[in-house]
Every structure is written in C-alpha cells, then in structure tokens.
Amino acid sequence: MFGMGFTEILFIAVIAILFLGPDKLPTAMVEVAKFFRNAKKTIGSVKDSLEEEMNVNEIKEEALAYKKELLSATDEIKQATEIPSIGTSLSDLSSDLLDDNDDEDEVVKQKKQKKPKAEKVTFEKKPKKEDIDV
User: How far apart are CA 109 and CA 92, in angstroms?
Assistant: First the structure.
C-alpha cells in the first residue's frame, strides 16, 4: 500500500496513537479516509476532464480536415467556372484557322472587350469615407 511495507505502516500507527491518543484516533482515521476519498474523486474528475479535452482536440482536427476538403472543392469549382475563358481561346483558334470571314473576327473582338470583370468576394469591412469640411 503506497509503496510501504507492513513495518512502516505499523510504525506510523504507533506514532499516531502516541500523538493523538485513543480518544481522538478514530475521528482522525475517519478524516484521513475522507481526505483520500476526496483526493480519489478529484483525480477521477481531472482525468475525465483531460479525456474530454482530448476528444475536443480530435473533433477540432476533424473540423480542420473538413475545412481543407471544402477549400479544395471550392478551388475545383472556381477552375470549372473559368470555362468561358477557355471557350474564348478556342474561338480565337477557330477564327485564326478559318480566316475567310472578317466579320466573325470583329464579333469575337467585341465579345472579348465586353467580357465582365470577375469580382473578388470578401467579408472585410470597407473603410469609411470621412467628409472633410473646409
């Protein structure tokens, strides 16, 4: 028990009887038992808390893995939506190969010039413009 032998426990018991006396010894033993019981409960609760924290860390790691998957999926979607630029380059190739009609080249050039700009979507606040009274 606690890394102590029988003789060590007997020696501690004799000293406890000498210092406390026979009338206070039973109450002291009850108090010592309560202390060890409370210490055991506290250690158990700390152990449970640590296990719960470990589980929370695992959940966080899973969430980060899902986030990486979502980011890669959005990148793939962005690449897939850039097909119109591929289509214009293909139409340029076809117009270069079929150089027989100049009107088609002008239409292709106009479509290129009217190509809308891609806007970047962010969730950052725009700085406020301050009115300066002079």
Answer: 9
One-letter identity of residue 114: K
**Residue 126 confidence (pLDDT):** 67
For the chain, the domains span 7-111
| pLDDT at residue number 103 | 53
Alpha helices in the chain (DSSP H): 6-81, 83-97, 102-113
Question: What token pair was written down for 94?
Answer: 């076809």
Q: Cα–Cα distance between 9 and 5 in angstroms, integer?
A: 7
Q: What is the pLDDT of residue 45?
A: 93
Buried b (16+ CB within 10 A) or exposed e, 53-83: eeeeeeeeeeeeeeeeeeeeeeeeeeeeeee
pLDDT of residue 42: 95
CA distance 17 to 25: 7
> Treating both helix axes as pointing N-terminal to C-terminal, what angle do 102-113 and 83-97 enclose, rounded to 10 degrees?
160
Report, as ranges of residue numbers, the positions in the chain whose pLDDT lies below 50: none
**The pLDDT value given to residue 43:** 94
Q: Is 32 helix (H, G, I), strand (E, B) or coil?
A: helix
